[in-house]
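As a warm-up, study this chain.
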Amino acid sequence: MLMPRQKTPDLSLPTLDHGQFDLSTDGSDRGTVICFYRGLHCPLCAKYLTELEKRVGEFAERGVKTIAISSDGEERTRKMAQSIDAKNLRFGYDLSLEKAREWGLYISTSRGKTSIGIEEPALFSEPGLFMVTPEQTLYYGSTQTMPFVRPHFSELVGALDFAIANNYPARGEYEGAV
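Now compare it with the structure written out below.
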């Protein structure tokens, strides 16, 4: 399990139009929001990423970079970016399932074609949303076992404003006896 205030796993993979993404050198002032999504086959992911695309500028104003990542290859990732008319959101691809597990993501098996007629990969990761500090420690994390009920980006932007104004630390860091 990932722990707040502790180093996250390394993460380096290709992006569609922004070269190689490397979390350890992403270079943002306040951190990076990483949105792991299921893949092109998921209509809920397209809707969710559309919302993130609308908020990229708001995160950037707060010194936070954003990236959407899946285990899809380059072709399927480009189709997803085109389907949501992405202009600002970075897209990473070729996430290994081993790396997905390091991040605590759940892995699902294919059920065939989805409601939009796109075949699911044999195995793929379920959604996760993380904010990682510039020092590559976990600030915020959320994982789902299903494509439904994901954190709202507008709430995350508001939470960032509060955290910045109040120098609010990452929570959930206690590992001792209970």
